[in-house]
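Lab notebook: predicted structure, single chain.

Context: the supervisor wants predicted structures on file for every construct in the current expression panel, including those that have not yet been purified. This is the next one on the list. No modifications to the sequence; it matches the entry in the shared construct table.
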Amino acid sequence: MTTTSFNLPSAGEVAIYLRSHGLRRAVAKLFSGYLAGREHWYLTIEDLGHWIGAHVEPDGLEIRRATRADLPRMDSFMARQHPNTLSAWCRDDHVFFIALAQGRAVSYRCLSRVVHPAVQGAITLGAHQTYMVDEFTDPAFRRRGITRRLAIATNPALMAAGIREVVGIHRTDNRDTIAATRAKNIVTIGRLTITRLGPRLWYRYEAFMPETDAPLTPSVRRAIAADAGTVTAVEPTVRAA
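Prediction complete. Output recorded below exactly as produced.
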């Protein structure tokens, strides 16, 4: 069965995006992500074995799993994420850890088995994989290695659940995330290009590391293999929440 699924953001999410990125980028996102256009994403694989045996150095920070009781402490996150989104991340289907400085949340790392809506038609996680939903650190607390400490803190829970890799995507113009992945030695395995024309989507994948198996859906993998070097159309499908 094929159908259309645009995953439109709420008014609150639109307001936050406008405030964070400005009108020009918001308009570009509207067209490329929901109407007609092209988006480029880097695909990364984080090997969680890298963190085995590493020790968290709190350095005055409290690092732990977040609960809804922590929402009043997350004011520094509200410029990036809607409160309803942060509340949803506190559910059991997410691994949401925060770092607190003097009782105020200043950084987070959120993981889930549900991938970003923009790539739900292109990426299928393996049983040993989870998805990097988002990482963020208050600008006043950056360049202190806090996201590294959060990665170490989340690792035992993930390894105990049989998770060995974290799959991530980020826009090719997201310089902050590119720098952060390099700092943590996270491997960029390829680039995924998504072209939209209304409800129709075309995918192109460029492997940077051909020996690494990318978690592409079988339909996208077959489409790319059938006509290598061209962009192949795939109709989006509705998935259960």
